[in-house]
Design brief:
Helix content is 74%, strand content 0%. By secondary structure, it is mostly helical.
Length: 70
């Protein structure tokens, strides 16, 4: 329920592209945390510099997608 409400709010505020990219970034961030802690029943997969760099680049891309107010 919170994801649907948050997505509806985000799409109206920052636009569809930035809102969708933000949802994907959030899912990737949470899945990285779950993987690094081993909560999925598997062996933990630590954060590598490649994973951190990918999340950082996606965050920068979302920042560039958000429309600037005049």
């Amino acid at each position: 329920v919170l994801i649907v409400i948050g997505a509806s709010f985000a799409m109206g505020t920052v636009g569809v592209t930035a809102g969708t990219a933000s949802l994907i970034l959030g899912q990737l961030l949470i899945s990285g945390i779950v993987d690094s802690l081993g909560w999925g029943g598997q062996a933990p997969i630590p954060f590598s510099w490649q994973r951190i760099l990918g999340l950082l680049l996606m965050g920068i891309a979302i920042f560039l997608l958000v429309p600037k107010s005049k």
